[in-house]
Design goal:
The structure holds two protein chains of two kinds.
Chain A (H helix, E strand, L loop, with lengths): L19 H23 L2 H23 L10 H11 L10 H13 L12 H12 L1 H6 L26 H17 L2 H10 L11 H13 L6 H17 L9 H6 L3 H8 L10 H21 L6 H8 L3 H7 L11
Helix pairs in contact in A: 1-2, 1-3, 1-9, 2-3, 2-4, 3-4, 3-5, 4-5, 5-14, 9-12, 10-12, 10-13, 13-14, 13-15
Chain B lengths: L33 E2 L5 E5 L9 E2 L32 E2 L4 E4 L8 E2 L4 E11 L3 E10 L18 H11 L11 H5 L9 E6 L8 H8 L1 H15 L3 E7 L3 H14 L6 E7 L8 H9 L14 E5 H12 L6 E7 L7 E6 L4 H7 L7 E6 L6 E3 L12 E6 L16 H5 L6 H9 L11 H4 L5 H5 L6 H22 L1
Parallel strand pairs in B: 1-14, 9-10, 9-12, 10-11, 13-17
Antiparallel strand pairs in B: 2-8, 3-5, 4-7, 5-6, 7-8, 13-14, 15-16, 15-17
The chains are: A mainly alpha, B alpha/beta.
C-alpha cells in the first residue's frame, strides 16, 4: 500500500527552484565571456592557465573532502568559481603550472580546513592570489603581456616565450606619472575606450569592464546579488581617487582608477561573495566603502599598484561584526 | 487608512519580506463547491480548537470496539458526561461534546448514525488524539434549518448562538470565535478586518465561499460588527480573485444601503503571507501590532471570511458548525475539487469519492503547502481548521537534501517579521538553540515558511525554528527550577 511511502516532513512543502548550484553555475556563466575575450586579447595560453586553475581547485576540493571524510560536492560549482576567479587575477604571461599552489591554498586551507562552503573567513581565490604573490613575487608582478591587437592567438603560446613584461597601467601611472602614461597608452579618451573593452595589459579576466559589468548586472537582475557592495566599492574608489589621487587635492582621475586594477571584477564577483560579505544593506554599503578606502590607501601609499585584492581580504573578517552591528529591521519593532 | 472602494486602486500590501510561490489555484478556483455524499463514518476530535478538550457526551454503546478504536477505553479515569444519555444514535448537528465554561468550542455530530465510541485516532498535527467515532445510518434524514432575522437578537444572544454552534477561527489557529468576539469593555476597537487573502498556494475554499456565498459573508460581517459595537469593516482579498472582489462589492452595494455599517473590499497584492494577521492588518490599515500584544491593542480584530459565513449560518439558521468546504488539489489526486465535507471525514473517503490517487503521489498535506502538515496515512480525519488536502507528486514538492548555510541572506529578505532565520538555523545546528531568543523568535515567528521556501541550500529552517522554541522553553524551565 502506498500509504507507508508517504513523505512526512515539516512545512513548507514547496520550495523555490534555485539551489546553491543554480546560483554558482549562473555566476560561472557570467564569468565565461571575459575568459573568451581574454583569449582574443592575450592569446590561447590564458585559456590553459584558467583550465589548470579550475582543474586544480576542483581536484583539491574533491581530494580534501574525501580525505576529511566529508561529502564531495564538486557539482555545486563553488570550486569552479574559485578556480576561475583565481585565474582571472593572475598575469597572462605566467607559466601554466603557476595557479596550482594557489588553488591548494584557496580551497584546502582557506575553505575546507575552515569547515567547507559557508564557513570560510576569507575569499578563497584572493587568498590563493595573495599566496602566489608571496611565493612567486617576480612572475606575479612582471608577467604582463601587451594585447595581441590582431596578432596570432598562438603568439605567447609554448615554452620558448620569455616574459614580455609589459607594464600595467596603474604601475606606469604610479611610478612614472601621467605623462609617461599618455605616451604609453595614448590619449585619455582612447584609454577609456580601450580599458572599457579590455585592450590593455592586466590580469587574465580583469581587463574588460564592459563584459564584467554585463555579468554583474545579470546577477543583480537575477537577485543573486544586490547593488550595494559593487556600487559602494566603485563609488568610493572613484571618489577617494578623485580627492587624493592627483598631484593636489581633487585632481585625481576617478574613471581611470575604476577601470583598471581589477576594480570591476573585485566589486561584482569577489566582494559580493555571500560567505565573506555582510548580509544587511547598511553593512554592505559600509563594507564596500571600506574596501574602496583600503584600495585607494594601498594604491597611493602602499607598495602595490592595484590593491583591491588586499582591501577585500582585510574587510572579509569584519563580516560577522557588520552582521552583528546591523540587524534586520523587525516588523513589530522588537528590541533588535 | 481605510481605502474607499470607489477610488482607483493600487493593491495594498505589507512592508517587510514575503515570497511569491506558484499559485496553482486555477486548478480548483473555477470549480463550484460540491457536497460530499455522507461518508460511512466520521471521527471527530475532542479538541479541534484552542483551549481544553471537549467533555465527551457519549455513552459506551457496545462492547465491541470499532476498527478505529486503536486505544479504546484507555481513559479509565475520565468521567463521561452523558449529554446524549441513552442515545447512541445521533442526528446530524446534535451536540456530542462541550467545554462548559472553559476556553474551547462545542462539538456536533457531523453525520446521522450510531456513536461507536471514543477512540484515539490519527491526528494530522499531534500524531494521535481522542475522538468520537460515528458510523452512518443510511436512513438518517438531513437536517433542515429555518432562517431567522438576526437583528432581533441582543449582543449576548448573538454570542450565545455562536458559542452553541462551536465555531472556531477558520484562518488556521482555531481560536473559539465566541471568546474572540466577546471583547472586554475596556478595549476600544474601530475596525473589523475580514481576511479573504487566502495567500496559501493551491487553496481556493475561501475563494469559492466569497464567490458563492457573498451575502452570507457580508451579513456575517454585520453580525460581528454588531457584537463588537463598531461600524467599519474592511475585507482584504488578494488581487488574484477578481470574481470574489466583484461578488462581495455587488453584495455590499445591494445590501448595505440601509445599514449604518461601512463595509469595503480592499484588494491586496498577491504576496505570501498576505493572509497572516499581522501582515493583513498592516496592508489594510497601515498599523503594526507591537510584539507580544494582541491585535485589539491597535484597534482591530481579524476574522476569516469563512468564519464570517459560518457565524451567519449559526446565528441566522442556527446551524452548528459540523461541515466545511475544503480544497482537494495537487497532481496526486484524480479529480481536484472544492468539497463540502462533514468534519471528521477520513481522507480515504474523500480520495475514493474523487476517483483515487495517481501513481506519482508522494506526499499528502493537510492544509496549504506553506504551513500545512504532512500526514503519514489516509486514515486521518478532517478537522474544523483543515482548509484543504493536497495530494502532491514528486515534481510538486521539494525533497532535496539540505546543505550548509552559505549566508546568501535570502531568508533575511523573505522574512515578513524581520527575523534572522539563517542565524537561528546555525545556532540550532551548533547545539545552542536556547540562545536564539535574541532573534525575536518567541513572540514574532509564526512559521510561515518564507525563509525555508527561498533557501537555496534547502535548509529546513521552520524545523530549526521549532527546535529552537523547544530549547528556549527547556532553558526557561531550568531557570525557574533553579530559582
Amino acid at each position: 500500500m502506498m500509504q507507508t511511502d508517504l513523505i512526512v516532513s515539516v512545512s513548507p512543502h514547496i520550495k523555490q527552484k534555485a539551489t546553491v548550484a543554480t546560483i554558482m553555475w549562473t555566476v560561472v556563466a557570467c564569468l565565461i565571456p571575459p575568459l573568451i575575450l581574454s583569449v582574443f586579447i592575450f592569446g590561447l595560453q590564458t585559456l590553459i592557465i584558467t583550465l589548470v586553475s579550475v582543474g586544480a581547485c576542483v581536484a583539491t576540493e574533491a581530494i580534501s573532502n574525501k580525505f576529511l571524510r566529508r561529502p564531495v560536492k564538486i557539482n555545486d560549482g563553488s570550486a569552479v568559481i574559485t578556480g576561475l576567479l583565481l585565474a582571472y587575477i593572475i598575469p597572462p604571461g605566467v607559466p601554466y603550472w603557476t595557479p596550482v599552489t594557489g588553488a591548494v591554498m584557496a580551497i584546502f586551507v582557506t575553505k575546507t580546513l575552515m569547515g567547507g562552503l559557508g564557513f570560510n573567513i576569507f575569499n578563497p581565490a584572493l587568498i590563493g592570489r595573495a599566496f602566489l604573490v608571496a611565493t612567486y613575487p617576480v612572475i606575479m608582478t612582471t608577467a604582463w603581456l601587451e594585447p595581441l591587437r590582431g596578432a596570432s592567438l598562438f603568439k605567447y603560446l609554448g615554452p620558448g616565450v620569455d616574459a614580455v613584461s609589459a607594464a600595467t597601467p596603474l604601475h606606469v601611472l604610479k611610478h612614472y606619472g601621467m605623462k609617461t602614461f599618455i605616451e604609453k597608452f595614448g590619449s585619455l579618451s582612447t584609454v577609456y575606450t580601450d580599458f572599457f573593452v579590455g585592450q590593455r595589459p592586466g590580469c587574465i579576466g580583469e581587463t574588460s569592464a564592459l563584459l564584467l559589468l554585463i555579468g554583474g548586472a545579470f546577477l543583480i537582475y537575477k537577485h543573486y546579488i544586490t547593488w550595494h557592495i559593487p556600487v559602494s566599492v566603485i563609488v568610493s574608489i572613484g571618489f577617494l581617487t578623485w580627492v587624493f589621487g592627483g598631484e593636489h587635492l581633487f585632481s585625481g582621475n576617478p574613471l581611470l582608477a575604476v577601470l583598471s586594477g581589477g576594480v570591476i571584477l573585485g566589486a561584482f564577483f569577489m566582494a559580493t561573495d555571500y560567505v565573506t560579505s555582510p548580509s544587511q544593506k547598511t553593512g554592505q554599503l559600509l563594507f564596500g566603502a571600506g574596501i574602496g578606502a583600503l584600495t585607494v590607501l594601498i594604491r597611493l601609499k602602499g607598495g602595490y599598484p592595484e590593491g583591491i585584492c588586499y582591501a577585500i581580504l582585510l574587510m572579509n573578517p569584519l563580516t560577522p561584526a557588520f552582521d552583528q552591528w546591523f540587524k534586520p529591521k523587525r516588523f513589530s519593532g522588537g528590541a533588535a | 487608512m481605510v481605502t474607499d472602494g470607489s477610488a482607483v486602486e493600487k493593491p495594498a500590501t505589507f512592508s517587510l519580506g514575503g515570497v511569491h510561490p506558484d499559485e496553482v489555484k486555477d486548478v480548483t478556483a473555477g470549480l463550484p463547491i460540491e457536497p460530499l455524499p455522507p461518508p460511512p463514518r466520521v471521527c471527530l476530535f475532542l479538541k479541534q480548537h484552542v483551549g481544553v478538550a471537549c467533555q465527551v457526551s457519549v455513552q459506551k454503546p457496545s462492547q465491541k470496539p470499532p476498527t478505529e478504536a486503536l486505544l479504546y477505553g484507555r481513559h479509565p479515569g475520565r468521567i463521561y458526561q452523558q449529554l446524549v444519555t441513552r442515545k447512541p444514535r445521533v442526528s446530524t448537528g446534535d451536540l456530542i461534546g462541550s467545554v462548559g465554561d472553559n476556553l474551547g468550542a462545542a462539538l456536533h455530530a457531523s453525520l446521522g448514525g450510531t456513536v461507536e465510541g471514543v477512540a484515539d485516532a490519527l491526528h494530522p498535527m499531534t500524531g494521535k488524539a481522542t475522538a468520537i467515532v460515528i458510523s452512518k445510518d443510511p436512513e438518517a434524514a438531513s437536517p433542515a434549518y429555518e432562517l431567522q432575522e438576526w437583528r432581533q437578537f441582543t449582543r449576548q444572544e448573538l454570542l450565545e448562538r455562536i458559542k452553541d454552534a462551536g465555531i472556531v477561527g477558520l484562518g488556521g489557529a482555531g481560536f473559539p470565535a465566541h471568546i474572540k468576539l466577546d471583547v472586554p469593555s475596556g478595549v476600544s476597537l474601530d475596525t473589523l478586518i475580514l481576511n479573504g487573502a487566502e495567500c496559501e498556494p493551491y487553496l481556493t475554499c475561501d475563494h469559492r465561499i466569497m464567490v458563492e456565498h457573498p451575502h452570507e459573508v457580508i451579513e456575517g460581517a454585520k453580525i460581528i460588527l454588531t457584537i463588537l459595537g463598531i461600524r467599519a469593516c474592511v475585507i482584504g482579498v488578494e488581487n488574484n480573485k477578481p470574481d470574489a472582489i466583484a461578488a462581495l462589492r455587488r453584495t455590499i452595494d445591494h445590501d448595505t444601503a440601509k445599514d449604518p455599517f461601512r463595509i469595503v473590499v480592499s484588494p491586496l497584492r498577491v504576496k505570501y503571507p498576505q493572509g497572516s494577521a499581522d501582515q493583513i492588518i498592516q496592508s489594510v490599515t497601515g498599523r503594526v501590532r507591537p510584539s507580544g500584544k494582541r491585535s485589539s491593542h491597535i484597534g482591530v480584530i481579524v476574522q476569516n471570511v469563512y468564519t464570517s459565513k459560518t457565524i451567519y449560518d449559526a446565528v441566522v439558521r442556527r446551524k452548528p458548525f459540523y461541515e466545511r468546504v475544503i480544497t482537494v488539489s495537487g497532481k496526486g489526486i484524480a479529480r481536484p475539487a472544492n468539497l463540502l465535507v462533514p468534519i471528521g471525514t477520513h481522507l480515504s473517503d474523500i480520495v475514493s469519492h474523487l476517483g483515487g490517487t495517481t501513481a506519482g503521489l508522494v506526499k499528502v498535506v493537510a492544509g496549504g503547502p506553506m504551513m500545512g502538515f504532512a500526514v503519514s496515512s489516509l486514515e486521518i480525519p478532517i478537522t474544523k481548521t483543515t482548509a484543504g488536502v493536497l495530494f502532491l507528486t514528486r515534481e510538486e514538492i521539494d525533497a532535496q537534501d539540505y546543505g550548509p548555510c552559505i549566508r546568501c541572506g535570502f531568508c533575511l529578505q523573505a522574512c515578513p517579521m524581520g527575523l534572522e532565520p539563517n542565524n537561528i538555523g546555525i545556532y540550532v545546528e551548533a547545539g545552542r538553540g536556547a540562545e536564539t531568543a535574541q532573534f525575536g523568535l518567541v513572540d514574532d515567528c509564526f512559521e510561515c515558511g518564507s525563509c525555508a521556501y527561498v533557501c537555496p541550500s534547502k535548509r529546513p529552517l521552520v524545523q530549526f525554528i521549532r527546535l529552537a522554541r523547544i530549547r528556549i522553553r527547556e532553558a526557561e524551565k531550568k531557570k525557574e527550577k533553579q530559582k
